[in-house]
Write a structure and sequence with these properties.
about 550 residues; alpha+beta; Adenine-n6-DNA-methyltransferase TaqI, Chain A, domain 2; nine-stranded mixed β-sheet; five-stranded mixed β-sheet; binds S-adenosylmethionine
């Protein structure tokens, strides 16, 4: 292994550091070399299983650059430290800014023993470099699981109760957390049970626990997938986060590749800086975006924090507007006073899961017990058409005592795709299932890749169905969802908490759409621009 930092006794210099084989311009380069040495003997397949995707140098330095603390006494944490590049980036910053007499304590957690020698080597390099600046630096490597280390377990007469030990607090927390799913009954999930919904991912637990470990003036910088910003799975963690911390800086990597391209991981990633200060209603968030990890085509914009960290009732979201138009659209949509529920509608998911219902599925209407089965490919424009088939998919479902709960009464519905492909122009594609077109059937089947909007206590009219469908198919709603999440799914929860205009406006849009939807020139954007008086520059892009 290499020796640490150049040992020219007569004339100590900080940069470059030299080792037996290399010269390093800074500590991040030094740590990156440790990563390379480690990766040479640990193939990517094994690293992925351990959630080991190391941060590239430029990103590590960018992240360290986001801290704002001016304190002299600083306690730093990296909860899943790998080879220590993130801590090295913070130390580089102290050195570049020529800080003197800092009193630094660094705690790092790393539960993979094979990476520990590389981590130790980086931390030693940091210590030596900082000591040369008359800064004291002590570090401690915790060779255990970050979550479990903070979980206190009390067992008493067959009962096991979990609580959290939050006694050690940190001023700066920096992390590229591991990414892997945990079992719902794992000790980690039990320790954070009140924040779990569905199958948890360790990265969100790292975020949550780190947030809880911040000192009163603490700051955290994380690089994570964008997935925690919306959707049901992270809803409880997000609610805690949005209501407890101030999110004052976000950076979005707009490509789906490249950030961790060396390790072939395709994720939309973001970096955030949050503080333990209570969120202020008039706070601002700086949002930046780049299209690769070199930060080329870097753009930034300051936006009201309330447009980013946003709650409607109990549902909280983190939205990322990346243009003035996005921001205007968010503000227009937020100003709409209604929601599906307040207007008396509900959204549900198509009950027919094809592989579970396979014995009830039929190629055609074989007998009088069969009814049409509708799939995503049956959505054509703003209408549902059952005539076309696709790839031999079943066109019908047979009703029998076992399958009778899988079908719906034939009524008007708004049907929408739960998934769209990346090539598709819009994230939401909704259409009207007109009961008149299926009047010979008492029931109808909706496959599970569809969501459908129905009325709670009465029947949905065609004006209502066309109004909701046309609105959901507009460019404004598409752009709104792009700011809300980075994937191609728009799930029922997202639609449920979407703000909607007043009922009479939805009806007016519906009437227009109903009259004109077969006209090739009919355009949902024109319809809402006319009814809601929204400037043309916003309704199309
Ligand atoms: C995504 S890597 C990031 C490493 C490093 N911080 C960086 O930015 O390059 C996450 C690290 O956390 C470690 N890790 C995984 N699960 C952990 C846990 N439960 N507690 C502590 N460390 C963990 C992995 O071994 C891995 O080194």
């Amino acid at each position: 292994m290499t020796s640490i930092i150049s040992k020219n006794q007569n004339k100590p210099t900080l940069y470059p550091y030299s080792t037996e084989n290399n010269i390093f311009q800074n500590l991040v380069e030094y740590a990156n070399n440790q990563t390379k040495l480690y990766c040479e003997v640990n193939p990517v397949s094994g690293r992925k299983l351990k959630g080991q995707i190391f941060t590239p140098p430029k990103i590590a330095s960018f992240m360290a650059g986001l801290f704002t603390s001016q304190n002299n006494k600083i306690k730093i944490l990296d909860p899943g430290a790998g080879t220590g590049i993130l801590v090295a980036a913070i130390c580089d910053r102290f050195i570049q800014e020529n800080h003197r007499n800092l009193d630094i304590t660094i705690h790092v957690y790393e539960n993979d023993k094979t990476v520990l020698p590389f981590l130790q080597s980086t931390l030693e390099a940091c210590k030596t470099a900082l000591n040369k600046l008359d800064c004291s630096m002590d570090y401690q490597i915790f060779e255990n699981d970050f979550i479990l280390h903070h979980a206190k377990v009390d067992t008493d007469e067959g009962w096991t109760a979990y609580s959290l030990d939050l006694s050690t607090r940190y001023d700066l927390i920096i992390s590229n957390p591991p990414y892997y799913k945990l079992n719902k009954s794992s000790p980690e999930a039990l320790a954070l049970q009140q924040y779990v919904y569905g199958q948890p991912n360790i990265y969100a637990f790292f975020m949550l626990l780190s947030g809880m470990l911040l000192s009163q003036t603490g700051e955290m910088v994380f690089i994570t997938p964008r997935s925690f910003c919306s959707g049901l799975y992270y809803s409880k963690i997000r609610r805690w986060f949005v209501n407890t911390l101030t999110l004052d800086r976000l950076h979005l990597f707009e490509t789906r590749k490249d950030v961790f391209v060396d390790d072939e991981i395709l994720q939309e990633n973001l970096i955030f800086h949050a503080t333990s200060a209570q969120p202020k209603p008039d706070g601002k968030t700086l949002i930046s975006v780049s299209y690769d990890r070199q930060f080329t085509q870097y753009q930034e914009m300051i936006v009201p924090s309330k447009d980013v960290a946003y709650c409607r009732g109990d549902d909280c979201y983190i939205r990322i507007p990346i243009s003035k138009t996005d921001l205007e659209i968010i503000e227009i949509v937020d100003s709409w006073p209604q929601s599906l529920n307040s207007l008396g509608f509900e959204i549900s998911t198509g009950p027919v899961v094809d592989f579970r219902a396979v014995k009830h599925l039929r190629a055609t209407l074989e007998n009088s017990n069969c009814v049409p089965l509708l799939w995503m490919h049956n959505i054509k424009g703003i209408d549902v058409e059952w005539s076309g088939g696709k790839n031999g998919k079943a066109k019908a479902i047979e009703i029998n005592p076992e399958s009778k709960n899988l079908v719906l009464p034939t009524r008007n519905y708004v049907v929408m795709k739960r998934f769209t492909s990346k090539e598709q122009k819009k994230r939401v594609h909704a259409a009207v299932l007109n009961a008149d077109n299926f009047s010979e059937f008492e029931f109808i089947g909706l496959e599970n890749h569809l969501n459908y909007v129905h009325k709670n206590r009465s029947l949905m009219t065609l004006d209502e169905a066309y109004g909701i469908s046309a609105l959901l198919n507009t460019t404004i709603i598409d752009q709104y969802f792009r700011a809300l999440n980075g994937n191609t799914q728009v799930n029922a929860t997202d639609i449920r908490s979407l703000s909607l205009p007043d009922y009479d406006k939805i009806l007016a849009i519906g009437k227009l759409a109903r009259k004109k939807h077969l006209d090739p020139d009919f355009d949902c954007d024109d319809a809402i621009s006319k009814v809601l008086k929204i400037g043309k520059h916003l309704v199309k892009n």
